[in-house]
Design a protein that fits this description.
By secondary structure, this protein is of the alpha+beta class. The chain has one domain: Cytidine Deaminase, domain 2 (3-Layer(aba) Sandwich). 28% of the residues lie in helices and 23% in strands. It has a 5-stranded mixed sheet with strand order 2-1-3-4-5. Strand 4 and strand 5 form a beta hairpin. The chain is globular.
């Protein structure tokens, strides 16, 4: 998908965020190998642990539809600030557990500026499945 198109789509998805408590809306779109897109938004609750971040919302939605780590190509993020964000550490753990290390994370700010990261660069020395053996 073209950069302009994905940025416009992220802005549409961002409107679905439910950020009543911390007022920090975030949108994500997970792109699968076949071009299918899974949107996700953060959904805040009065108890922070009961909510969900946009990244996990998108990944878990794709997984509920039968997709797995070998299907995920990249995830796009957008927040309503001038900052280019990276996933929080809970989301990094979920990304590490359910995506390939070469997953591209393309993060946009509200101005349309972006930066691309690789999951393996954000999750060096991560705890994972091999740590449990």
């Amino acid at each position: 998908m073209e950069k302009n198109q994905i940025f416009q789509r992220l802005n549409q998805v961002l409107k679905n965020s439910s950020s009543l408590y911390y007022h920090y809306p975030v949108a994500a779109i997970l792109e699968c190998h076949d071009g299918k897109l899974y949107p996700g938004v953060n959904i805040e609750t009065s108890s922070p642990q009961a909510g969900i971040c946009a990244e996990r919302c998108a990944i878990f939605s794709a997984m509920a539809d039968g997709y797995r780590k070998e299907h995920f190509q990249r995830i796009y993020l957008l927040n309503q600030t001038k900052n280019i964000i990276t996933p929080c550490f809970i989301c990094r753990q979920a990304l590490h557990d359910y995506c390939n290390p070469d997953l591209e994370i393309v993060s946009y700010n509200i101005l349309g500026e972006s930066k691309t990261y690789l999951l393996k660069d954000l999750c060096q020395n991560a705890f994972g499945e091999d740590s449990l053996k």
